[in-house]
Amino acid sequence: MNPEATLLLVGATDETVGKAKRLGLDVLLLQHPTKTTDRQRELADLLEVVDYTRWELVRPIAERWREAPGFAAVTSITEPGLENAGRLNDLFGLGGTGYEVTRRLRDKAAMRAHLAAVDPAAVLARPLAAREDLDAFGAEAGYPFVVKPTDATASIGVQRLDGPADADRVWARVRELSGTRTDRVSTLMLLQDFLMEEYLDGPEFSVESFSSAGRHVVVAVTEKFTDPAHFAELGHAVPARLSLADEDRIREAVIAFLDRVGIRDGVCHTEIRLGARGPRVVESHNRVAGDAIPELVLAVYGIDTIELALAAPFGLAPELPDRPEPHGGAAVRSVVGRPGDVVECVEGAAEARALDDVLAVRISAAPGETVRPLRDNWDRLGLVAVTGPDTTAAVRRGAELIRDVVQVRVKDPDGRPGVAVVAEVPSGGPSDVPSGAPSGAPSGVGEPVEARS
Question: Where is this region: Disordered (predicted)?
Answer without folding.
Answer: 413-453
